[in-house]
Every structure is written in structure tokens, then in C-alpha cells.
Give the backbone structure.
Amino acid sequence: MKPLSRFSITVSLFTVTLSIALALAASIISYTHYANRASALTAGRELMERSAEVVRLQTASLIEPINAIAQYSGDWLDVNVEPKASGHPARKRLISFLSAMPQIANIYIGYEDGSNYLVGATRTLPEARLQEMGAPEGTVFREQIILRGDRDRPVQIERFLDENSVTLHTNSNEDEITYDPRERPWYEQAIDSPLVERTDVYLFTGSKRPGLTVSKRHARGVVGVDITLSDLSSFLDSEPQAKSGVLAIISHEGTLLAHSSLKDNPEGDDRYAALSALQEQVRNPDRDKIKTVEVSGHPWMTHISAIGLGAGERENLAIAMPSREVIGEITRASQRTILVSILIALCSIPVIWLVSRSLSRPLKTLAKGTRRIRNFDLDKPFSQSSVVNEVFQLETALDQMRTSLVTFGRYVPKALVQQMIKRQETPEPGGEKRDVTVLFMDIENFTAMSSKLPPEEVMNRMSRYFEVVTQTLLEHEATIDKFIGDAVMAFWNAPNLVDDHPVKACRAALAVIDACKAETDSWSDEDILPLRTRIGLHAGEAIVGNVGSSDRLNYTALGDTVNFASRLEGLNREKKTSILISAELAKRVEGRIAVRSAGEAHIKGYDDAIEVFELKPDDREIPT
């Protein structure tokens, strides 16, 4: 196969220089475009700020009168007078409030004896609810009186009034009355506070609609003023921004309190998606209260700001508008300004694109290759196909580096190599204290097997055995330290931190026993004793790091924790067990991994007998 022609870096640089000259015009166009766009966005932000300020002021004009009613209700001369069957002295005052302020749904006075007096506007009640109550035609106000006091059974009287407060119809109910103002959120919240309070959203008893109540304590009870969320939504819908955008009042938790009207079909109205974006922005606030988001593939501008919603409580006023509605005209003027420049540069775009693609492709390949090396992703060879000679040499060197690291990774823990590459460290002798879980494992009757089989067969079997062990341990986040004949040493929590490493080590040991048994059971030898894998586990402090000389290092763990794990592995022969763990490890996994005491044992290097515990493969984990 004829080799590819390769060009020098000089030719490549010449080509790049020519491309830069051609791209200069595009850079100027881009700068002009983005500068104009930045100006447009600045203007758009100012427009959104002004819109939000207008809505906040108008909302305040709705809410502040409600606050004032609650704030000064204690000064009413008749507020402490309990209602009678005929009504209450405050009726005229309350009806005047409802007439003057249509944003108010109900006003009521709850008393400490459980009596309640309410005057509400029937416009807030659904038609079906009015019919259920028996409200006659022409009803404008509803008066509800609940009398408790010293009565054995409470009495409820309900009157329906016309616009002149003339009674049209009266209902009286002496059946079981369940409504008690003292159990309602607006009463409970205000009765222990000297300030005006505001509830969270709840369902009103009369209309069964959600709303908020502003309330304040008086000498003998609480005065409450209702505003329904539907009224807030109607107010937002009347704002000019609602024609093409969406306005909403959203709680700090992201709950939608009120919003301007949307189409019945969510798929045909981008404002549904914009509303969801506003809720997400409230749940995850940042410093910039004005943002640009994508809605159905189109840019929208959003604005989040605090808004007073009664009793000093503040929620979030959220506005979303299509960017074309906010900055469309400014953007179109900018586009006309740069149109001529774009037409002049248009003819050079294909040339710039072809040259840029040709030069960037090998560089992108090299960049991807270095990222793969950094992530220790070394399985796939790197491409070596660039026509640029110097780049081809880099590709070749990169693949040689990959091959070298593959070889290097077979001798040291992969996690350690990844860490060294990531940190660009030079390995040096030394270590640090680390809480680790250490595993030692060995094969019982290995010596007998190896003495009766050819060395090639022993090597073949052990290679398969160690492959099973290695894959199982790595799946459980272990660092494999070394292979010593038929033995393996591994540990957890170094070099990388491993969450809950004692439990993961126990699970790994159980998995290794299963995997190794399946492998060794396949070795059918009638004259050789059956093989059995033994494991010792211990958790505690050890020194982990590089041990050795300046010429050769080994990343390992040293200390009493390591020695004790090794002793536990050997103790399996005496205890006739497969997995022994220390009391310290048993304590750490208590309640999550099934363990049982294996009694006490004298371990070399320790004066007193030490209790050890067994992990049984058939017990597994404790159900949760």
C-alpha cells in the first residue's frame, strides 16, 4: 500500500495563516453582532425590570389594603362583640370592604368560644356551590353566623344578601356543625402572635378553592381576610405581559400560587414550558435574577424578584417573555446593520470551513486521545492517519504511550495509575495513615495440587483463577496489592476513597468465595484433594503509600492491620471456615452483613485470645 503523502508544519502554518486572514472579516462581523446583541440584552433586562416593578406596585395596591384591614381590625369598636342570630354590628363595615375591594373573597371574625361571623362575596363561589347552598338569584353577599358559647349544640345561620345588603333568603342549621374557626390555619397562626400573619395556601371551606388568609388577633379572637388564588391569577392575566408571555407568583419551594391564563392544550402553548422553567429557576436560585432560557427551541427572557404577599411575607414574582417580544425590534435593527458585511464575507465561508475542518480533525483526535489517557481508557488504539507529518508523529507517540501505560497498569493498581496521571505526580517513597479494610486470601490444598500436575497446567489454572478473583474484587472497588504464589492481598479506601469500605469488602469476600468455588469445582481431579478459598478481613489504620527504593517502588499497605488480616486468613485452617473477620470489622458491619462468632483464638504476636467472627456465604446480608 502506497504511503500517504505528508506535509510539513510550515505548509500547515501557511494554510492556517491564510485562514486567519480570511476569518478576520468574520471576526469583525461577529464582534459587531455580539456587541449589538449585548446592547439589546441590556435594554431587554431594563424592560423586564420595569415590567416587574409595575406588577409589584400593582400587587401592593391589592395586598396592602388587606394588610391594613387586618392590622387595624383590633381598633374596631364592635370587633369583640359576639355575633347574634340577627347578625353582627360589623356587617355594614365588612360589606363596604367587600364592595370597595373586589380582591377580597371573605372577611370573618372568629371568637375564642368557637363562634364565627363571616361576610363573603358570592362571586368567588362556583355556580354549583351556590345552588347547593340555596342562594337565590341576585345574591351578591353571603353572611354566615356560627353560634357556640354556652349552647349544647352550635347553631349555623346563613343569609344571602343582594347588592344593597337586603336579605333574600335565610338558612338555619342545627345539625352537627363541624366548622370551628379555632381549628383553621388563619386562627391558629394568629392567636399566639401580636403581628399580622399570613397563612400558606389552603382550601377555603365555603368555595373549596385554594387561597391565602391575612389575619390578626384581637382581644377575644382573630379577624381574617381571604384572597383566592383565582383572584390573583385574574389580576396577573390582566397585565399586558400576559398576552404573549406568562406571569406567575411562586413560593420559595417552587409551588405555583397564581399565574396568568394559558391555553387548554399544553402542546400548543409554549407558556406551559416557560412556567415550568420559572418554577425550576425559583427552586434553584442564583445571583442573576434575569436569565435567558430555551423554550421549545426559542429564547425566552425570565425575571424573578421578591413580591410582598401579605403580612410581610414575600414570595416570588416570575415573568417570562419571548425574547423576540422584548428585544425583537432592537435585534432586527442590528441584523440590518451587519447584513452588508455578512454578504461580503459570505463567499469566503466555504474556504474557511474546509480549511478549518482539515486542520482541526487531527488536533481533535489528539485532544481526545490525551483525554482517554488521562481517564486511563487504553483499550482502543489511537488513529495514525494524519497527512501532516508532525501530527502523525504525535499520533504515533501517543499510541506508544498508550501501549506503555497498558503494560504499566498490569503491574500496579489501576486506580493508582489514574491518580498519578490526573495529578501529574512523580512517584516517591513515602506513605500516609489511612483507615482501610485489608483482605488476604489463599487456596487450601494448592501445594498438593501443584505437586501432582504439570507446571503448565498449574499456571493455566491459576491464571483463570486469578482472572476471576481480579474481576470480582475490582467490581467491588478493591485495590489489588499483590499476588504471592496462590495468595492475593487487596485493600479498600486507598489510593481512592471508598464510601462504607468495610461493608463493600465483606460483600467482595462473599462474591469471591462464590466465583472461586465455581472455578475450582470445574477442575475435576479424582486423586487431588478439593481446593477451597480462604479469606481473612480486618479494618483499621495502616500506612499506605510507595515502599521501595528510588529504582523500584511498590504501592502497598503496611502495619498491624495488614498483619492481623494475614493471620486471620491462616486461622481459617484451624477453624474450618472460609471467611474470618476481626471483631473491629464485625462491629462496623453490624446490622448490615450477617456475621457469627467463631470463638476465640490465640494469634501469633498477640498475648491474649482474640474473638473472631465468620462470614457465611449462605447467610448473606441482613434484610432491610
Summary: The mean pLDDT is 81. The CA atoms of residues 73 and 79 lie 7 Å apart. The radius of gyration is 40 Å. The longest strand covers residues 532-548.
